[in-house]
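Notes from hallway chat w/ T.B., transcribed later so I don't forget. T.B. wanted the structure written out for a chain they're using in a teaching module, and asked if we could keep both sequence and structure tokens in one place. Agreed to drop them here.
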Amino acid sequence: MLTVSPQLNITQNFVLNYSQILNLYSSPFTVVPAEPGYAPIFQRAALVFKYGTTPFSNVDDLLSFKTVLSDLTEFYSSNSLNALNILGRSQDLNAQFVPANPYEIPMSSAGNSKLIIKLEGSNPTGGDASASLSISITYGVLRIT
């Protein structure tokens, strides 16, 4: 029998630098690493994008938080980021997000999943070496037994 029990809510803050932003497609950033028997559940995030003087190009408007199961199946945790074209802007941006349905992943296979932020399509190009993306994310942790 599958048992899902809430464990705790956690808020983490981190900053992606220019190099990390340029590689968000080929090397997604792991927000919460996988841990056997546990599933991170995206709750909300606040993003601050500092663009510098030159916007990124080739960003495809698809910056997303995703839950990745142990079989590498990916589920969108926050597709609301897609419409903002965050990395393609030529100005600084502050934005906040909450998911419409944070429990959309199948709990029967959610244990040992991780939470990532990535770009779809391809790595961005251009941009400014002083660009950064600050992220404050709150997520829950569920124990799956």
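Follow-up for T.B.: The mean pLDDT is 84. Might be a good example for the class.
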